[in-house]
Amino acid sequence: MSEPFKSLSLYSANPPENLTKGDLKREISTLSDQLAETQRKLHAQKKYALLIVLQGMDASGKDGAVRNVFSRVNPAGCRVTSFKVPTALEMKHDFLWRVHQVCPEWGMIKVFNRSHYEDVLVPTVEGYATPEQIDQRIESINCFEKLLVNNRTILMKFYLHISEEEQIERIRRRKLQPNKRWKYEASDVRATQQRKQYLEVYERLFRECNAEPWQIVPSDKKWYRNYFILKAITDKLSRYDIDYPEIEMHSLKGGDL
Q1: Is 78 left (phi over 0), alpha (psi -120 to 50) or beta?
Q2: What is the C-alpha to C-alpha distance for residues 251 and 254, in angstroms, rounded to an integer?
Q3: How many alpha carbons fall within 13 Å on the CB side of residue 79?
Q4: Which of 33, 83, 216, 229 has the highest CB neighbour number within 10 Å of its CB?
């Protein structure tokens, strides 16, 4: 978002009009190859790290985005972390303790499928943190992200924006289709009932945690979601001096190698 954030209601969850999946099929393939090549250079050079933050309502397609966007990168150079309810050990530390431990080292791509922002979203909606505590967490997140960026972590934050109708339909399919039922949880229904409250918190985060800008991804159509994220990542990485490192060549004794 290059302009100050105003309201999610101003953002469509659908692709631009007159754009079809077929229109982007070849470009998606090209971008996937481009990301794979850049990842190889990133891994070899070990100058930068890349951290991708994926947030969105339940059923917004975070798992699918990870599976499709990073389908061609080398698994040795890309890892995914999801943040669930904090463990007993994690609860004995500050809320960012568990996050900092799994941030990517130089040369690596890390994807957060849900992230440190859950520690603002859930406590706010469920009401088990005071307004003062939420303010402090937002301040801490801004300092934390500045620390990462100042230490050569390329940070990109995506919010997968789906309509209420699409969210309900996807949860319905989870419940009815055998190959999707493993994803279904009773909390999914509760999340749809709390949609308005969650969106209000997201809007605050977009306004107050925007030193590294959020990108609002139209996600009702999965193919456009994948294209949007791929294009954003490849465009961003192209602005950095990521390349294979220069190495000093040595001759072996008794040979020309």
Answers
A1: beta
A2: 8
A3: 12
A4: 229
Nearest to 222 by CA among 48, 54, 63: 63
**Residue written as token pair 């972390």:** 81
257 residues of the chain, pLDDT tens digit each: 656 788 999 999 999 999 999 999 999 999 999 999 999 999 999 999 999 999 999 999 999 999 999 999 999 999 999 999 999 999 999 999 999 999 999 999 999 999 999 999 999 999 999 999 999 999 999 999 999 999 999 999 999 999 999 999 999 888 887 777 677 776 677 778 999 999 999 999 999 999 999 999 999 999 999 999 999 999 999 999 999 999 887 766 655 55
Residue with tokens 């999965």: 222
Side chain identity at residue 158, one-letter code: F
d(CA 188, CA 123): 17
Domains of the chain: 22-237 (3.40.50.300)
Written as six digits, the tokens of 82 are 């999801």
The whole-angstrom distance between residue 110's C-alpha and the CA centroid of its chain comes to: 9
- Return the residue matching tokens 């800008």: 213
DSSP letter for each residue of 60-78: SSHHHHHHHHTTTS-GGGE
Torsions phi, psi for 216 (to 5 deg): -90, 115
Strand order in the sheet with 78-82: 78-82, 109-113, 49-56, 153-161, 214-218
The token pair that represents 112 in the structure block: 């957060």
Q: Count of CB atoms within 10 A of residue 82's CB? A: 14
pLDDT at 191: 76
CA-CA distance, 4 to 209, in Å (whole number)?
A: 11
